[in-house]
Design a protein that fits this description.
Layout (H helix, E strand, L loop, with lengths): L1 H4 L1 H8 L10 H8 L16 H10 L13 H19 L7 H16 L4 H4 L2 H13 L17 H4 L1 H32 L2 E4 L6 E4 L6 H5 L6 H10 L12 H4 L8 H37 L9 H32 L8 H6 L7 H13 L1
Antiparallel strand pairs: 1-2
Length: 370
């Protein structure tokens, strides 16, 4: 949230080349090193909608995994491109503050994601119980019990505990990666494309890729087995809640249920990682380290070290998955708050009164009519 609220300051420092307090499309294009390509194909000086479509199809698309290392200036530039699109769509005044809009969006969704209700924890209990069964079989309450070392090495030595833990780690890693990949891919389809015809030419803002039926038909956010999984876990997905517009077609097999389903998916996965980290470090890793340090008699001396190493890898894996969560969450907020999902009430709140009542009144009228 702090980064989002600082977008305005970042844009002024990094993108406002002439220091006039306003970042133009040309300044954005120069700062973001956008692609140079021919848009006015017939050279008549007039860019038609068809020429924009052809340019959009020819334009390159940034790899979704580049999102992970995106700089603050690039992210600020991206938000300002979105602002230009929203201002054009909704006839908003120049006082519209995109950083305020997204800060409010992120705040609302963050409240849902960090909620610690019983529904959030219930699915995690069986997963933890599998590992905890090793202690219970030896009348051990926790890693702090006086006889806790009797279980050291036994988590690794018990096949069904070992294999279930390996499966859980693999499943969790695929889950995190798919969440990240899906929302990032959808975001790329919703972003307007900024291009220039040459170094000295004016910047041109092309429409989002999803508005072209050719590109939309070739986009698939639910490939192969993932589509089956989405339909299974959402009670039919797009079959029971079909997409109502081109924007929702981007959501793939999950259909119109995407906003709720993927907010829950991000939440459950985040808390799954937290639970794995807490349990592994406090109940297994710390016990194995203590047993090796004091030379205690343990349940299975041969597997204590392999157990310590493997569960340490599990913790590192969970931390890496959690590192994807912020970008996944920010992109989720983006794809559920632009184009067909613009939150009109928040837009109104994000229009500063400094620009005059007339501009705000005009925008409010357009928004109400829309």
């Amino acid at each position: 949230l702090r980064e989002v609220q600082n977008l305005s300051e970042i844009s002024e420092i990094a993108l406002d080349a002439d220091g006039d307090g306003e970042v133009t499309l040309d300044e954005l294009a120069d700062a973001l090193n956008v692609e140079c390509m021919m848009v006015d194909a017939d050279g008549d000086g007039v860019i038609t909608e068809q020429e924009k479509v052809e340019a959009l199809r020819a334009a390159g698309v940034q790899d979704v995994f580049d999102e992970y290392g995106m700089s603050g200036a690039d992210r600020a530039g991206e938000q300002l491109v979105i602002r230009e699109r929203m201002m054009d769509q909704l006839d908003l005044p120049p006082t519209f503050a995109i950083e305020d809009y997204f800060a409010e969006i992120f705040g609302r969704n963050l409240e849902e994601v960090v909620e610690l209700s019983p529904v959030t924890w219930l699915p995690l209990i069986p997963l933890i119980a599998i590992d905890n069964s090793v202690d219970l079989a030896r009348d051990i309450v926790s890693a702090s019990s006086s006889n806790a070392f009797e279980s050291a090495g036994c988590f690794y030595a018990t096949p069904w505990v070992l294999y279930s833990s390996l499966f859980l780690q693999a499943f969790s890693l695929v889950w995190a990666t798919f969440n990240y990949w899906k929302v990032s891919g959808i975001k790329k389809m919703l972003l307007p494309t900024l291009v220039k015809e040459g170094a000295d030419s004016e910047a041109i803002l092309l429409p989002p890729r999803y508005l072209d039926d050719y590109l939309l038909d070739r986009f698939d956010s639910s490939p192969s087995i993932f589509g089956w999984g989405e339909r299974f876990f959402t009670g039919g997905g797009a079959s029971s809640s079909p997409p109502r517009n081109a924007h929702e077609r981007l959501f793939g097999a999950v259909g119109a249920k995407f906003p709720t389903v993927y907010r829950d998916s991000i939440r459950f996965h985040a808390w799954l990682c937290v639970a794995q980290i807490v349990y592994s470090t406090t109940q297994i890793i710390s016990r194995d380290v203590a047993a090796l340090y004091v030379g205690a008699n343990v349940g299975n001396p041969e597997t204590v070290l392999p157990e310590l190493m493997l569960w340490s890898v599990f913790v590192v894996s969970a931390l890496l998955q959690l590192s994807l969560a912020p970008t996944t969450f920010l992109n989720y907020c983006f794809v559920t708050s632009v184009e067909e999902f613009v939150k009109v009430d928040i837009v109104k709140k994000s229009i500063s009164e400094d620009g005059g009542r007339r501009g705000a009144a005009t925008s409010e009228k357009v928004l109400v009519e829309g």
